[in-house]
Amino acid sequence: MRFPLALSAKIAGHIIKHKLRKTPRFAMVLQLEPLHTCNLTCTGCGRIREYSTSLKDMVPLDKCLSAAEECDAPMVSICGGEPLIYPKIEELVNGVLAQGRIVYVCTNGMFMRKKMKDYLASIYSPSLEPKLKRLLDENLISDRDAEAIRKADAAARAKSVIKPSRWMYWNVHVDGLEYTHDLIVEREGVFKECVEAIKMAKLLGFQVATNTTVYKETEVQEIENMFKFFSWLGCDGHTISPGYDYDAAKKDMVKRLGRNPKEFFLTRDMTRQKFANILDWGKAFTIFGTPVYQEFLAGRRELTCTAWAIPTFNIRGWKAPCYLMTDGHYPGYQEMLDKVQWDKYGVVNGVARDPRCEHCMVHCGYDPSGALGTNYQRGDNWKNFKYNFWPRPKPYAGGPELVKTVFNGASIGKGHLAEAKAAINPAANARGAFSRKEDDHTDGGGSCGSGDTSQRDELLAKIAEAKKNS
Ligand code: SF4
Ligand code: SF4
Q1: pLDDT at residue number 446
Q2: Model pTM greater than 0.70?
Q3: CA–CA gap between residue 440 and residue 97 (Å, rounded)
Q4: Which tens digits make up the pLDDT trace of 408-446?
Q5: What confidence score (pLDDT) does residue 260 get?
Q6: What pLDDT, on the 0 to 100 scale, is given for residue 314?
Q7: pLDDT (tens digit, 9 = 90+) per residue, 392-402?
């Protein structure tokens, strides 16, 4: 099966329950942001800007757990900021799992190996030695790490840890191959660390997914190579979504930079061109999401936004109307459902009900529409059923030949600090690439993989230019 039976059955059961009860709106995935602090400062990240006044604030553990209960979503995506910085992340993951929900830990990958070493220390016995040897042989841990794991004291053994579970996925943010990804996250070595963390996670029996946003300048071939590589590494799934500039980001471009924002939009037409092959990707790789959403991305049908199905909860409460735009925060999920005028948002039959929604096709607004049958067409249920329950695509076999293509940045001395900086002119630098401006408050948000996409598009355009000229 493409996805584990228990998980697919849980989600299907949730939808059927609400359909039978005729619940008008209900949550499918909770985007839980326990904090907005991050160890990285990625170009264009909406979250570290929108919530820059509250970077030190955190949602207490009990509030996080009660938010999951309150909306009763079967899936909880723990994001941020970087959720592995949250001091009670282990208790949070285990608490949500204990509620019987599926957990995605959306991470930039930098602290994953540390968390997995904590796990190994908590379960160490001599029977773990073959696994430690394999980790050492593959340079995924050091001799010192192995010793620390062997000598774990009672406190380390008693510590709450994140363990492999069929109900939990590491969801690693990767927006391209090494060169592109390190450039976007503004630090060399991040892509390599993600790869090592993914290898270690697979070796220890964790489920791992990747999470990618496609920008205006993202090359389709690069995305295909990325899927092939991570499929070869044994990843269990991939989330992919088009990046999107919401209104505030556009205004910001005009006001601060004096640029015509039309130069940077990923319009619906452009998105459809980028995603023209997504149905083939869905056959070859374990892409998360419904084939109905994939048809929408490929331009074969229209869908209506169901942003209420993927609510976001953070330090300010329930964020409305969606993960991207902020028109308000509410103290309760039901209050948000009742008070927001949902029919003011989205695009219906190609007409934007809110100009800010005009070109939006993002996963968090439209993927649930495909699962919930919002724009049902005959055969959709069968299509969705077949996609979920048919055999899983085999891992890509040609990984070894891809390694040179994939490690095309810092590993070969072509990291962003060298060549990429030369590709970015000083004016662009001052505009935010390679530097985070604390006073740069875009209203809209995003997290790993979304935010002020105009900055990323601009950056990627310059890289493409530099590549052509080199
Ligand atoms: S269309 Fe996009 S921007 Fe508009 S409400 Fe839906 S998810 Fe948000
Ligand atoms: S995109 Fe994710 S990893 Fe990057 S700064 Fe924002 S929260 Fe951190």
Answers
A1: 36
A2: yes
A3: 37
A4: 999 998 887 765 556 555 444 444 433 333 333 333 333
A5: 55
A6: 95
A7: 999 999 999 99
Atom of ligand 2 nearest to the CA of 450: 1
Structure tokens at 218: 């993202």
Tell me if the bond preceding 81 is cis, omega within 30° of 0: yes
- Please name the residue whose Cα sits nearest to atom 8 of ligand 1: 322
The single residue listed with the structure tokens 């900021």 is 81
Dihedral sign (CA 223, 227, 230, 235): positive
Instruction: Look at ligand 2, atom 6, and give the residue with the nearest C-alpha.
Output: 45
Is residue 80 lining ligand 2, measured as CB closer than 6 Å? yes
DSSP character at residue 308: G
Alpha-carbon distance of 119 to 144, in angstroms, equals 16
CB of residue 345 inside a 6 A radius of ligand 1: yes
CA of 421 to the centre of ligand 2 (A): 20
Residue type, 60: P
- Under 8 Å between Cβ of 31 and 420: no
CA 375 to chain centre: 25
Instruction: Give ∠ CA 6-8-11 in degrees, rounded to 5.
Output: 105
The pLDDT of residue 430 = 40
Distances in Å between the alpha carbon of 75 and those of 49, 78, 98, 100, 168?
A: 26, 10, 13, 9, 10
Rounded to a whole number of angstroms, the distance between the first and last alpha carbons of the chain is 45
Least distant ligand from the CA of 358: 1
Residue 249, token pair as written in the block? 């980001």
Question: Are the C-beta atoms of 165 and 97 separated by less than 8 Å?
Answer: yes
- Estimate to the nearest angstrom the gap between the alpha carbon of 313 and the chain centroid: 16
Vertex 41 angle, CA 95 and 183, to 5°: 115
Q: Report residue 195 as tokens.
A: 């790869």
Q: Which two tokens stand for residue 141?
A: 């841990």
H or E, element range at 170 = strand 168-173
Q: Would you state the pLDDT for residue 320?
A: 96
Query: Three-state SS for 444?
Result: coil
Give the per-residue pLDDT at 135: 98
Amino acid at 289: G
Task: Tell me which residues of the chain have a pLDDT lower than 50.
Answer: 261, 264, 426-447, 449-450
